[in-house]
Amino acid sequence: MSQFVKREKFIPYNRPDITDLEINEVVDTLKSGWVAKGPRTNEFEKEFAEYLGAKHAIAMNSCTAALHVALLTKGIGPGDEVITTPMTFASTASTIIHTGATPVFADVDFKTACIDPDEIEKKITPKTKGIIPVHYSGQVCDLDRIYKIADKHGLFVSEDAAHALWSRYKGRLIGNKLHDTASYSFYATKNLCTGDGGMLVTDDDETDRKARIFAGQGMSKNAWNRYAKGGTWKYDICEPGFKYNMFDIQAALGLKQLARLEEMQAARLKIAARYQEEFGKIDAMDPPFVPDYTTHCWHLYVVRIVPELLTIDRDQFIVELNERNVGTSVHFIPVTYMSAYTDRFGFKKGDFPNAEKHFERLISLPLYPTMTDEEVQYVIDAVKDIVEKYHK
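Above: the chain sequence. Below: its structure as tokens.
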């Protein structure tokens, strides 16, 4: 019989890890008088690229912006198709639509919840111009197989690495030795937080040149410095671009978060290891499968229930966790369930069986560096208590 005792204080699904180091850097930035895009943004780009071992990094106001710009640099537009996964946030697909192209969805591998290369191959047509694989939750896609498909068909690969900072594929960081581009998110819940923000990474000089123009209102190079001594008001608008740039207040956060990344990752790995060990002992829980080629950054801890062994479904399991003061989320409702996509493209249940099966079972549990040992153990105990209560 469970000896579970409900705690009084709620454990949120996520909590940013912000220290005095970041706070002081932001205050110094405010005092400097340079709060829009400026020297700190440039420094953040340089240090981020060096960390990954990439040639170029372009700081933006979101990962969504980075994904959009990546497609624009390759001329993706009306009449084109880009293949991606339904198991992602909607921005991955919506940026394809924003270019005028059509998103085409390929089902996931049920074991990893990452896009299945075999399904990608099935969806390629003469209109296909690119692939956006999503490194789901910090789990890395099978990139060698995806790159092989891309090379075979002459396709652009835009890696959605919103969840994958610090993740590795066969020992190398995502963003290192890229096929084309990778896009990162620095949203409040991410492993590196700038409040909001993103980064586009590439080794290609021409992609870098175009991306900076698209992200900076279409202005010519170095227009950001036009108000400083030695700057010039004589800029050109080369493209009808977008207001996608990062600014120095965000970059100040990013610089110090990047300096603390290894420290924060160590905490994430410790928590994930405890979850993996404990949930691996429970027959009604299916902990994440991590392939040999992946070094998981544990942006998310996505566990699946085994509904065949429980008298409640996933939705009720979440209710039970909430009643025990444990916050959760669901990553993700498949994009192909959203009305913007069902109405436009006619998707229906059963079109992507692996993504749907994964969705119906998944729960994202709390995992962040500031969790205490007591909080981690409490989450484990709460899950065990629910399983014991509702086990068949």
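The first helix runs from residue 20 to 32.
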